[in-house]
Write a structure and sequence with these properties.
Largest interface: A-C, 63 and 61 residues
Order of helices and strands of chain C: EEHEEEHHHH
Number of domains of chain A: 3
Chains: A alpha+beta, B alpha+beta, C alpha+beta
Distance between the termini of chain C: 55 Å
Radius of gyration of chain A: 27 Å
Strand content of chain C: 15-25%
Largest sheet of chain A: 7 strands, mixed
Number of strands of chain C: 5
Radius of gyration of chain C: 16 Å
Helix content of chain A: 25-40%
Helix content of chain C: 25-40%
Shape of chain A: globular
Structural class of chain C: alpha+beta
CATH superfamily of the largest domain in chain A: Aldehyde oxidase/xanthine dehydrogenase, molybdopterin binding domain
Strand content of chain A: 15-25%
Oligomer: heterotrimer
CATH topology of the largest domain in chain C: Ubiquitin-like (UB roll)
Shape of chain C: elongated
CATH topology of the largest domain in chain A: Aldehyde Oxidoreductase, domain 4
Strand order of the largest sheet of chain C: 2-1-5-3-4
Number of strands of chain A: 30
Number of domains of chain C: 2
Strand order of the largest sheet of chain A: 3-5-1-13-10-11-12
Number of helices of chain C: 5
Structural class of chain A: alpha+beta
CATH class of the largest domain in chain A: Alpha Beta
């Protein structure tokens, strides 16, 4: 029987009522008295030197309060980067300055040059057009491989070149890996692109800066996944505002998917301008503006080689990846292709030798950073594609090849620096096969063929690492932040609780699921527990919501704080009942003394804590409020197996997803309804990446997919109902809830099964296509079927120049697109 | 948007007068014009909203049996009210944009704009519809003059579109998944004396007639007649991130064959 | 500026509008009805759908002055006067048809129109009707289930499939 309440139940989400009735409070719904509006003048060239800016005419226009340029920020810090990577040669990464407003040069289309603050948004927009800017155009750096050649134009004049870092994992293993590949019975090679994406949360970014002179306090309302991180980065590194003088509030946030993790120039600008003008300053991004100012995701070009012995055991794996950083280093950008990607290259397999090389490159494009999955989709895609290709080359069953190489003993230390605590990859594969009726596939294929369609089935495994931790380790790896989470549990005199958490929901339903944990532990109704989040003045500290960390890390902090509360409450209860602390038990909201019929209700104990008439004042202080900082000692490692069944229309190349199944192991599950919803959303974004989504630049650095007219995202009719299952559960061994993360799995695990399915479908029609780069648009599939070269403009910068395609086609017979 | 004065004439005559203002622009349903103006890619001093003019809305049949659709008729009305009289046209209208867009967008607005990927131009050209303005009647064959270009003069308003209803017709559309406009779409109209085939989405010159297919189909109205043809020349086809010219040319043939098959 | 008056959620409401003021901005800024959202600038996403004289329209592509005098229903006007959620709203909660909530007002307005036009739509009809509404969180799975359930059709329970 499904539970009604507590851990494992699926209560209706309490936040839904306000969202369903139009009462949500998003940042753009906030309007402060006396508020002015800012509009940014953005570069329309990818790379150029600013030779002059004349703001005179704009400043004279009606309603204009002030026009800011890069000069106004000369005394202010740049937008900081939160992670430093060390290259193979021991040097630290090249880290360019990232000014709030462009200074000297513009480095991507959308780079802000000036900001007009006016009484209304339209006035600011009108005045923007009156700013006279002269820019001397420079050659755009777009193709990554060309960018790192000697003599290439430089994105940042002050740097040695466009190579940010050249990273190896594990460098000591490189020679052994090379030897193993040379000696292998079979080597499967694949060159591929992980397409550049734009997260596109439905709520565009908004920032409202406010300043009160009477107490010298600044407040920023912003669309952020992690307000405390913004407070720290913006206060300490950009504006020099101490944290006790700065409040950051993220109210309801309309989706994030990673792109609202980062500290952005617009946030710093609004906070800065509000103080300079002593007026609230609001910025609302238009969708078109979002395309050129929100951090993008993915954008890797990779060569992967898998070595197998004669028995088809994986013996070695070698990868080389070019990772696009864009024009500046966004908050967590350097960590994505390295520690969130290289460490996952073992996947679900016991490959003994692995070497990963990543070259991060600056280009004249929007900065690239974490997007749902962040590094792990890139790792999973290349690995699960190369395994599938190996199976095809060797003529073996792709499921059996995977099973043969699955890790089966845990804990398992991979050759790429991480240790998996638990997992059961055969179990999720078994569950998947139950969901998809693989035996019935030949008949279904025959049915499709009778209708002139090609049917394919693609299967893959995945593993991911989430809840990035522990702080002491990530510090060694270059993180400039801790990766704990904090929680304060405040019990009121009448027994209700307020939980202040540093995790912040942007759709995950924390207001519903976190109370399930607390209420379950105490044995009280969930409506006695209220969640407070998203405000640095209300919550002590927080690292925010990303990397599928909320429950595993934030939930564990709540668990720990609740444990402390219970421990103290037991002391009070012991005093009241004149018993020993150790004999006190808490169940169903009642304290009892073991072996007796004595009891005292939760509410009586909480009242005693605040009205301490009969209270152990000599031992403990009055009050009942506890804070915990939880710093996990490892990542959690969700895993699973996914399958996609497609039909390809051979006349048009159009791919239709007929079925998609996901069998996940998330460890223990607090709210199955929310977990399923997270998987559905992840699948939609992963399938979207595979079939539809592509952020495309031309060779001059102009963004071709610059609005919803050209950036295709899935609609309701692009999907069937998904079959998802999370009944395979190997609880995480190192957090108190035994939970793993579920927010990104769908986006990580699904792209390879879609592509595997299309390759399978084409093969059934006699089209031996080794690989097609995502997104598998009808045009690309059709061209691939006919041995042609599809329009390269649909690829991202690194993949579309002759340079790169030549390199890829020379090395990769597989890549015939 | 740049600001403008909005006027809302209640009659065609008032609209014609309002259009005499300097830099006046007619506003149909606004589903293309307003986004374009929001992007500041278009501007006007006076915007003349046609939505309140009842006399240019509605659908009827004239003495020659032609289906006459007022220029201010929304896609939703065509979808609903032509389902029996001209199902292929109703089907076309019912696949423009989405339900909310169809409640605002109008046939007159679509034909006046002549987006190279719009749906209605394909139907109008395939049927050699008559585009009626306050001044004259223009045959579709003379009306479409290239991408976003028509025979309309300044201040001319599309008041009605008259379609000779074909014996059989079908509109086959392959969508561009982001904009949901056609990547390529083909309207096939079979009359007793001729077959006409109009293609939208494919050519950088906008909607065009595929003469080879018309000739082949006039003798043998069958899918096979289309399959026996070469795809039209890829030169001059739109090439963008959704598909290059060769792919679009190929799709023209596929969509045409499917449209013919669906007519049967 | 011109004073524009409409019947909004059953009450006569007035606010100023320029020629260029969009219906969505008039509602959000003029009337402070912030439940209607702006998710794009190309009439693609559907977050701004309201009912104009009973029919769904994208309020980001309608001029406020043009529809002066019209009847408008926004998401704030869908629940009962006593706060009881409509069948569509209730089904969205029951079937977890929303996550971040930003596209939700437009989804609810679109779904409400669909069920008015087609009281028992098939799954395919639901998916097709929602073609003008983008959701980035749910993968549409639970939205489709919610709309089916709101129409009184049997739908598998949430988290029990």
């Amino acid at each position: 029987m499904p539970k009604d309440t507590g851990i494992g139940a699926s209560p209706k989400r309490r936040e839904d009522v306000r969202f369903l009735t139009g009462k949500g409070r998003y940042t753009d719904d906030i309007n402060l008295a006396g508020q002015a509006h800012v509009v940014f003048l953005r570069s329309d060239v990818a790379h150029g030197r600013i030779t002059s800016i004349d703001t005179g005419a704009a400043e004279a226009m009606e309603g204009v309060i002030r026009v800011f340029t890069g000069e106004d920020f000369a005394e202010v810090g740049g937008i900081p980067c939160g992670w430093q990577i060390t290259s193979i040669d021991g040097s630290v990464m090249q880290e360019p300055k990232h000014p709030v407003l462009a200074h000297g040069k513009v480095r991507h289309v959308g780079d802000p040059i000036a900001a007009v603050v006016a009484e209304t948004r339209d006035q600011a927009k009108d005045a923007c057009e009156a700013i006279e800017v002269e820019i001397e155009s420079l050659p755009a750096v777009i193709d990554m491989k060309a960018a790192v050649k000697p003599g290439a134009p430089k994105v940042h004049d002050e740097l040695a070149g466009n190579l940010c870092y050249d990273w190896g994992l594990v460098q000591e293993n490189k020679e052994a890996v090379d030897r193993a590949i040379s000696a292998a019975a079979h080597v499967t090679t694949l060159e591929l692109v992980n397409n550049r994406l734009i997260a596109n949360p439905m709520e565009p970014r908004v920032a409202v800066g406010d300043y009160t002179s009477h107490d010298d306090h600044s407040t920023l309302y912003t669309t952020s996944q992690n307000p405390h991180v913004i407070r720290l980065l913006m206060g300490a590194f950009v504006l020099g505002i101490p944290e006790h003088k700065l409040r950051v509030v993220a109210p309801d946030v309309g989706g994030g998917f990673g792109t609202k993790i980062f500290h952005y120039a617009e946030e710093a600008f609004c906070t800065f301008a509000a103080k300079a003008l002593e007026r609230p300053v609001k910025w609302t991004s238009s969708r078109s503006e979002a395309f050129m100012s929100d951090a993008h995701g993915r954008d890797h070009v990779t060569k992967i080689e898998l070595a197998l012995d004669a028995e088809h055991n994986f013996t070695a794996l070698r990868t080389e990846t070019y990772a696009n950083m864009g024009a500046y280093l966004s908050t967590f950008a350097p960590s994505v292709p390295t520690w969130l990607h290289g460490t996952l290259m073992a996947g679900n397999y016991k490959t003994p030798l692995i070497y990963v090389n990543v070259k991060a490159v600056f280009t004249n494009t929007v900065p690239v950073d974490a997007y749902r999955g962040a590094g792990r989709p890139e790792a999973t895609f290349q690995l699960e594609r190369v395994v599938d290709k190996a199976a095809r080359e060797l003529g073996v069953d792709p499921v059996e090849l995977r099973r043969k190489n699955f890790i089966t003993e845990f804990p398992y230390a991979t050759p790429v620096a991480v240790e998996y605590d638990t997992g059961d990859y055969h179990a999720t594969m078994d569950k998947l096969l139950e969901l998809i009726d693989r035996d019935g596939f030949p008949a279904r294929r025959a049915g499709s063929e009778a209708r002139g369609k090609l049917r394919g089935l693609g299967i893959n495994s995945y593993i991911e690492a989430c809840g990035i931790a522990p702080s002491h380790l990530v510090g060694q790896l270059g993180a400039r932040a801790g990766l704990y989470e904090s929680a304060t549990v405040r019990v009121n005199a009448t027994g209700g609780l307020v939980v202040m958490t540093g995790s912040h929901s942007h759709g995950q339903g924390h207001e519903t699921s976190f109370p399930q944990v607390v209420a379950d532990m105490i044995g009280i109704p969930e409506d006695q527990v209220e969640i407070v989040h998203g405000d640095t003045d209300k919550v002590p500290m927080g690292m925010g919501t990303y990397g599928s960390r909320s429950l595993a890390v934030g939930g564990s902090a709540i668990y720990r704080a609740t444990e402390k509360v219970i421990a103290k409450a037991k002391k009070i209860a012991a005093h009241i009942m004149e018993a020993s602390d150790e004999d006190i038990e808490l169940k169903d909201g009642k304290f009892t003394v073991a072996g007796t019929d004595k009891s005292v209700a939760w509410g009586d104990v909480t009242l005693a804590a605040y009205v301490p008439h009969n209270y152990p004042l000599e031992d403990i202080e009055p009050g009942l409020e506890e804070t915990a900082f939880y710093d996990p000692n490892n990542f959690t490692y969700p895993s699973g197996a996914y399958a996609c069944e497609v039909e390809v229309d051979p006349e048009t190349g159009k791919v239709e997803v007929l079925a998609f199944a996901a069998a996940d192991d998330f460890g223990n599950v607090v709210n199955p309804m929310i977990v399923e919803g997270q998987v559905h959303g992840g699948l939609a974004q992963g399938i979207g990446q595979a079939l539809l989504e592509s952020c495309a630049y031309d060779a001059d650095g102009q963004l071709l997919s610059a609005s919803y007219m050209d950036y295709a995202m899935p609609r309701a009719h692009d999907f069937p109902m998904f079959a998802v299952d999370s009944s395979c559960r190997t609880p995480c061994t190192h957090n108190p809830l035994g939970v793993k993360g579920c927010g990104e799995a769908g986006a990580i695990g699904s792209p390879p099964s879609v592509v595997n399915a299309v390759i399978d479908a084409l093969a059934s029609g006699g089209h031996d296509v080794g690989h097609i780069d995502m997104p598998l648009t009808p045009a690309r599939v059709w061209h691939a079927m006919h041995g042609g070269t599809p329009n390269q403009r649909a690829a991202q910068p690194a993949a579309h120049s002759e340079e790169t395609t030549h390199d890829r086609s020379v090395a990769g017979a597989a890549t015939n697109v | 948007m740049y600001d403008f004065e909005l006027v809302k004439p209640a009659s065609l005559q008032e609209a014609i007068e309002a259009m005499q203002a300097e830099d006046a622009q007619a506003l149909g349903g606004g589903q293309t014009l307003l986004p374009t103006m929001k992007a500041r890619l278009a501007m006007a001093d006076t915007l003349v909203a046609l939505s309140a003019i009842e006399e240019i809305k509605g659908i009827c049949t004239d003495d020659d049996g032609r289906l006459c659709i007022g220029g201010g008729t929304t896609h939703a009305m065509v979808q609903r009210d032509c389902a029996e009289s001209f199902p292929a046209l109703a089907s076309l209208a019912g696949r423009i944009g989405d339900p909310a867009v169809r409640n605002r967008g109008t046939i007159g607005g679509s034909l006046a704009n002549n987006d190279p990927s719009a749906c209605y131009p394909a139907a109008a050209l395939a049927c050699n519809a008559t585009i009626v303005t306050q001044n004259r009647e223009i045959a579709a064959d003379d009306y479409f003059l290239g991408m976003f270009t028509t025979a309309l003069e300044e201040r001319e308003i599309v008041t009605e579109v008259r379609f000779p209803v074909p014996e059989a017709a079908h509109y086959e559309k392959f969508i561009q998944p982001a904009s949901r406009f056609p990547l390529v779409a083909v309207f096939v109209a079979k009359y007793s004396d001729a077959v006409r085939v109009a293609v939208t989405g494919a050519s950088s010159d906008g909607v065009f007639r595929w003469n080879e297919a018309e000739a082949a189909l006039s003798g043998n109205f069958s899918e096979d007649a289309v399959k026996g043809l070469s795809a039209p020349d890829a030169d001059g086809m739109i090439s963008d991130l959704h598909g290059d010219g060769a792919y679009r040319a190929h799709l023209v043939k596929v969509m045409c064959a499917r449209a013919v098959k669906a007519c049967a | 500026m011109t004073k524009v008056t409409m019947i909004v959620n059953g009450k006569s409401r007035s606010a100023e509008a320029e020629g260029r003021t969009l219906l969505v901005d008039w509602l959000r800024e003029g009337l402070r009805l912030t439940g209607t959202h702006v998710g794009c600038d190309t009439t693609q996403c559907g977050a701004c759908i309201v009912h104009l004289n009973g029919e769904p329209v994208k309020a980001c592509s309608v001029l406020a002055q043009e529809v002066d005098g019209a009847e408008v229903t926004t998401i704030e006007g869908i629940a009962g006067a006593d706060g009881t959620l409509s069948a569509v709203q209730q089904a969205f909660q029951d079937y977890h048809g929303l996550q971040c909530g930003f596209c939700t007002p437009g989804m609810v307005m679109a779904a409400t129109s669909l069920l008015r036009e087609n009281p028992r739509p098939s799954e395919a009809e639901v998916r097709h009707y929602l073609e003008g509404n983008i959701c980035r969180c749910t993968g549409y799975h639970n939205i489709v289930k919610a709309v089916m359930a709101a129409s009184g059709q049997d739908v598998p329970a949430v988290a029990a499939e």
